[in-house]
Write a structure and sequence with these properties.
alpha/beta; Rossmann fold; seven-stranded parallel β-sheet; two-stranded parallel sheet; 11 helices; 39% helix; binds uridine-5'-diphosphate-4-deoxy-4-fluoro-alpha-D-galactose
Length: 322
């Protein structure tokens, strides 16, 4: 299959690019490197360092079987403080990409959606029929794109799959998290262990949540399991249909439980301090992954311990275990 990976120089896009290559697919990467890294694109892979709105020039030059779309602004807090760039890039950029996909008759699209489209859930686990009430601009823009894709598949033979990621972690195939602005729990905790002088202790955002140990519960999924779901989505996609599926493990871990697992894996104490709740954080997000099992044949294989082992190896010496 010939695939264009839009956002292929970022964390998840670069792991998916490597998995597609390992499985013998022909991959081209498009990324403006606003947050991604050019050196995350494997040597020999055709790479266009251009804006998503120029994707039509790439799609015009060759016949592609699929586009996998990871490019987005994704900092939840920033999206609330500065919404306009999120609407421009995430929604406007994807509109331009969809127009190019239509014009050049690309049959299949796989899109990176998010659990942030649901907001605070009424019930756990969260199924794909749960109400979508995003609590921040980031989630709202991803939901808008999901709606845009649904409309597109109604009006055209496009086969589309939106994958709603829960908390992605770990590293694989030589790639891992390299965010300049890092907000995520696991990399922040690892950094607090190794950069004691510069970064100081990691802040736990509230210990007064309505959960058994007072810290929020999340559903962590390994980036390699996630990458496999994308490959399976390429074959599961049906012309004229938009499948929306959650990608999570179905298990929830509190912040305290994650930190304890990090201390077990690394053999080191995570320096922490307790701060106030972070605005927009829900208490508990756990996926139902039944639909992904049924429609994609996807079952996650790797545990939270694997994610932390792999993130730790990548953090300490840029190595990946898997
Ligand atoms: N946390 C801390 N301290 C930190 C970082 C995180 O206590 O330094 C806590 C958060 O409060 C939260 C948990 O750890 O309870 C996980 O936080 P992350 O920032 O790692 O992940 P989120 O659950 O906030 O965000 C993830 C994705 C987003 C997506 C969101 C859906 O990274 O892209 O899930 O709600 F929008």
């Amino acid at each position: 299959m010939k695939a264009l990976v839009v956002g292929g120089a970022g964390y998840i896009g670069s792991v998916v690019t490597r998995l597609l290559l390992a499985q013998g697919h022909d991959v081209t990467v498009l990324d403006d490197c606003s947050t991604g890294h050019a050196d995350s694109v494997p040597t020999g892979v055709p790479f266009h360092q251009i804006d998503i709105t120029a994707a039509g020039t790439v799609l015009a030059a060759d016949r592609y079987d699929a586009v996998l779309h990871f490019a987005a602004k994704s900092l939840v807090g920033e999206s609330v403080a500065r919404p306009a760039p999120y609407w421009h890039t995430n929604v406007g950029g994807t509109r331009a990409l969809l127009d190019a996909i239509t014009e050049h008759h690309v049959p299949t699209l796989v899109f990176s959606s998010t659990a942030a489209t649901y907001g605070e859930p009424d019930t756990i686990p969260i199924t794909e029929t749960a109400p979508t009430r995003p609590g921040n601009t980031y989630g709202a823009t991803k939901l808008a794109v999901d709606m845009m894709i649904t409309n597109q598949t109604t009006a055209s033979p496009l086969a589309a799959v939106s994958l709603r990621y829960f908390n992605v972690a770990g590293a694989a195939l030589g790639a891992g998290e390299r965010h300049t602005t890092e907000t995520h729990l696991i990399p922040n905790a690892l950094r607090a262990i190794t950069d004691t002088g510069s970064s100081g202790p990691m802040t736990i955002y509230g210990t007064d949540w309505p959960t058994p140990d007072g810290t929020p519960i999340r559903d962590y999924v390994h980036v390699l399991d996630l990458a496999h779901a994308h490959v399976q989505a390429l074959t599961a996609a049906q012309p004229g249909h938009h499948l929306i599926a959650n990608l999570g493990s179905g298990d929830g871990y509190s912040v305290h439980q994650v930190l304890t697992t990090i201390e077990t894996v690394t053999g080191q104490r995570v320096p922490t301090t307790t701060g106030p709740r972070r605005a927009g954080d829900p208490a508990r997000l756990v996926a139902s992954n039944t639909l992904a099992q049924e429609k994609l044949g996807w079952t996650p294989q790797l545990t939270l311990t694997h994610m932390i082992e792999d993130a730790w190896a990548f953090h300490t010496d840029g190595r990946t275990i898997r």
